[in-house]
Request: fold
Amino acid sequence: MHTGTTLTQFIIEEQRRTAGATGDFTSLLNDVVIACKAISNVVNKGALLGVMGSLDSENVQGETQKKLDVITNDIMIRSNEWAGHLAGMASEEMDEPYAIPGQYPLGKYLLVFDPLDGSSNVDVNISVGTIFSILKAPVAGRAAKTEDFLQPGAQQVCAGYAIYGSSTMLVLTFGHGTNGFTLDRDVGEFVLTHPSMTIPTETREFAINASNMRFWEKPVQRYVDECLAGKTGPRGKDFNMRWVASMVAEVHRILTRGGIFMYPKDTKDPAKAGKLRLLYEANPMAFIVEQAGGAATTGRERILDLSPEGLHQRVPVILGSKTEVDTVTGYHHEKAA
Ligand code: AHM
Ligand code: MG
Reply:
């Protein structure tokens, strides 16, 4: 039996510290957490529920949808549409923002999410996760329009992810620190197990999909070459390399023991500025990482300062240990000079 702080307690304490808090946000977050617990169950049961594999459909990004992409998207919607805290939702899996059905009241927040990040990994039993971001609606009580979601990441009220790994964890920030909670399945509660997560500033570990090497820009080529050169190269130390192809797992590793994660700009598909989505992936992860003392840039700009241009906009992402992110970002600026 755990004796630690539960997530419910943690959120209510946060509410008490916030002047003018009505409990709306607490209640919204509670619904998001319930959705993550439900998703954890479905992911965990996997093939027993017959939910593995792909569908014939594609999402708006032109990617084949997994059965679990659709099921988990539905869980997020059903858990969060009814309570009256939201003016709208946007998901990586839906072309347009989700309009709250007419029978439910409209609220003052917007919920943005990737219901199952890294879902190409579910069939092979590798960690996947749910990423979410909460924003204030520009007009409370009015059905959200697409442009309402296009707020710089610096305006996020809260960001978090659930990781469905060897244990299920939820990592959360409200803008003053990043905290990690582990699901105690016996009592059905997340318990604070990783208070004030802090990313070491220095690291010897980098994560990048090296099969894209020939498409990278020079500054990223240079950084990776220098890491690979190890002890005898300009960095004077050996590096280790990781690539899980599941952003939640990479970010979680970096929050736990440091490192740098890169999905940089490349020329593979000139129509795409990067692979990862600004609203559903880059912004929430950048907020979480910065709040843990790390940094997150596109190579050129701080991710949280970007003004989104579209709901499904993609951006280059370089995040993790501050010294390393600054080094790669510095190389981009040298090139520009
Ligand atoms: P998804 O949201 O469709 O799962 O795509 C995002 C995932 C990230 O979790 C991961 O970092 C990246 O795609 C892996 O891409 P790749 O297969 O090109 O290595
Ligand atoms: Mg994703």
Remarks:
- The first helix runs from residue 7 to 17.
- Residues 63, 92, 114, 117-120, 209, 245-247, 263, 275 surround AHM (ligand 1) (CB under 6 Å).
- The helical segments are 7-17, 24-45, 67-80, 218-229, 247-257, 278-291, 322-336.
